[in-house]
Amino acid sequence: MTQERPRATKRPETFAKPAHWTNDPAPTPGDGSRHEEDDRPDPTRFGDWEKNGIAIDF
């Protein structure tokens, strides 16, 4: 068993692409900001959360 097996490079002939699949390109990723309209710091960035004015960390 010193020989490597050939890798699959083609789909099996029995594979049929579902009708709802499209050939559209993948969407471009955003800038990563989830709170664009929010002017306060992102709690996940600073490692704490605020509840009733008290910062809690869990």
Automatic annotation (TrEMBL):
Q: Which InterPro entries match?
A: SDHF4
Q: Where does the record place Basic and acidic residues bias?
A: 1-14, 32-51
Region (Disordered): which ranges? 1-58
UniProt family annotation: Belongs to the SDHAF4 family.
Q: What is this protein called?
A: DUF1674 domain-containing protein
Q: The organism's lineage? A: Bacteria, Pseudomonadati, Pseudomonadota, Alphaproteobacteria, Sphingomonadales
